[in-house]
Design brief:
By secondary structure, the chain is mainly alpha-helical. Strands 1-2 form a two-stranded antiparallel ribbon. The protein contains 13 helices and 2 strands. Helix 3 runs parallel beside helix 5.
């Protein structure tokens, strides 16, 4: 127990320092800020959710004592709670029904476990991304017009100080960026949480501390009702006001979840290709470089949810299964 407490405190200190580094304004601090959940996730996956709980409470309390209550609340909502809960879900397992172990002798064999589905973890990540973005928007105001005006003022100060363009051009840029800012913030939150959880899993698996087998990411799929939730959120985007803004944030988070599922579909559909690694690297490079090709991944994830592309492909033509 002492080791768990020490690990949790060390992870909390590291996470708090990475979160607070954004105050310096240095470029490297932005990377550290986005990686702030990583130490707590490593502690959760390697030493259990209790370690992440201890580290999260210590870090949030320290930030609150030094910088004030807003930093404490922001850290708890955006870093500590997601890291603890995602780590808990990743280690959640139950014995398979009808898979009671039969031991050959006095010692019974270890029971086979059914682990919490990766698709549901991805849905939780989307929920946290939407929640943190909505919380950030509510700090700017309590209605859509106030939030948009606050975003415009902030963007005007940034662009006005760095851009030599005419005031009319700046105003048009500010208006456009204020509209897409909530969706962009949701995308950043979604991708950073996903990347942090993947990195934490790789770190703990490499060190031998991961207490579950590495999941088959190609088989990840979202719950069937996710498509219904996306349709409802998309419909609410057109009603206007604060509800429409929140619906746009939820829609963006769910679409990004389907986009990540699209990559799983791509990994499955390219199993039989000889130059598979090359084409997958090209696909990732294009998406990362340009951004908008992510729409193709979203479409692929939605098509798989509707038509079952992976199941049809695997039933019709069983491909070789490479190690990678």
């Amino acid at each position: 127990m002492i080791a768990i407490v020490l690990i949790g405190l060390a992870a909390g200190c590291a996470s708090a320092l990475m979160f607070a580094s954004i105050i310096s304004g240095a470029l490297i601090s932005l990377l550290l800020f986005y990686l702030a959940p990583l130490p707590l996730m490593v502690a959760a996956l390697g030493w259990g959710p209790i370690a992440a709980t201890i580290g999260g409470i210590a870090a949030a309390s320290g930030l609150g004592a030094i910088f004030g209550l807003p930093y404490c609340i922001a850290f708890a909502i955006t870093v500590a709670v997601p890291a603890w809960w995602l780590g808990h879900l990743s280690l959640l397992g139950r014995p398979l029904p009808g898979a009671a172990a039969a031991g050959n002798g006095s010692a019974p064999a270890a029971p086979q476990l059914e682990w919490y589905p990766i698709g549901r973890i991805l849905l939780w990540i989307a929920g946290f991304a939407a929640l943190t973005t909505i919380a950030a928007m509510l700090t700017l105001g309590t209605d859509a017009e106030t939030i948009t005006n606050s975003l415009r003022r902030g963007l005007s100060r940034i662009l006005g100080a760095r851009d030599a363009a005419s005031p009319g051009d700046i105003e048009r840029w500010v208006a456009a960026l204020a509209i897409i800012a909530p969706a962009a913030a949701t995308i950043v939150a979604m991708m950073t949480l996903t990347l942090n959880l993947w990195l934490a899993g790789k770190i703990t698996a490499t060190s031998g501390r991961l207490h579950r087998p590495w999941p088959d990411l190609r088989s990840a799929e979202l719950p069937p009702m996710t498509l219904v939730a996306l349709s409802v959120a998309l419909a609410f985007c057109f009603i206007g006001g604060l509800a429409a803004m929140f619906a746009q944030i939820a829609t963006t988070a769910l679409m990004m979840a389907f986009g990540l599922i699209g990559f799983a579909v791509l990994h499955t559909l390219t199993l039989a290709l000889k130059s598979r690694i090359f084409w997958l690297c090209c696909a990732y490079a294009i998406v990362i470089t340009f951004g908008w090709p992510m729409l193709a991944m979203i479409a692929l994830g939605l098509a798989d949810a509707v038509f079952g592309l992976r199941q049809r492909y695997l039933r019709g033509k069983p491909p070789p299964l490479p190690a990678s």
